[in-house]
Amino acid sequence: MSQVLVSLDALVEGQPSEAEALIDGEPESLIVVRTGERVDAFLNVCPHAGRRLDWAPGKFLLTREGLLVCAAHGASFSLPSGECVAGPCKGDSLRRVDVQVDAGDVRLAD
Ligand code: FES
């Protein structure tokens, strides 16, 4: 059975959360975003300089328009696409991690 990241009910619409997962045997921090019943996940690694995007574990900056802002140098990402729309890595994207919602749990996809 694939790893459970978080329960769907624990996610607030449009508010990124952080979850830990083992990916290829390595512990990774993920950004998890809920949009209605859909959930998207990305590695918590900025394509600009490889830093985490949160300023403290699980604390993400959002603009008023709902863009996710990297705490290191301010790159802004559209959600749920993960595309960088402004800042030093404009045009790059967060690395997507496939997840699925199963009986109210968000899991890594098989
Ligand atoms: S590491 Fe994210 S903007 Fe530089």
Task: Please render the helix and strand layout as text.
Blueprint: E1 4-7, E2 17-23, E3 26-35, E4 38-43, E5 61-62, E6 68-69, E7 76-77, E8 84-86, E9 96-97, E10 99-102, E11 105-108
The protein binds FE2/S2 (inorganic) cluster.
The site of FE2/S2 (inorganic) cluster has 11 residues, from loops.
Note the gap between the termini.
8 Å
Mean pLDDT: 96
Hetero groups bound? FE2/S2 (inorganic) cluster
What's the architecture in CATH terms? 3-layer Sandwich
Q: What is the helix/strand order?
A: EEEEEEEEEEE
The rough form would be described as globular
Helix content: under 10%
Number of strands: 11
Structure, described:
A hairpin with a 5-residue loop joins strand 5 (61-62) and strand 6 (68-69). The chain contains no helices and eleven strands. It is globular. It has strands at residues 4-7, 17-23, 26-35, 38-43, 61-62, 68-69, 76-77, 84-86, 96-97, 99-102, 105-108. The protein has one domain: Rieske [2Fe-2S] iron-sulphur domain (Rieske Iron-sulfur Protein, 3-layer Sandwich). The protein has a four-stranded antiparallel beta sheet, with no helix packed on it. It is mostly beta strands. The chain binds FE2/S2 (inorganic) cluster. FE2/S2 (inorganic) cluster binds next to loops.
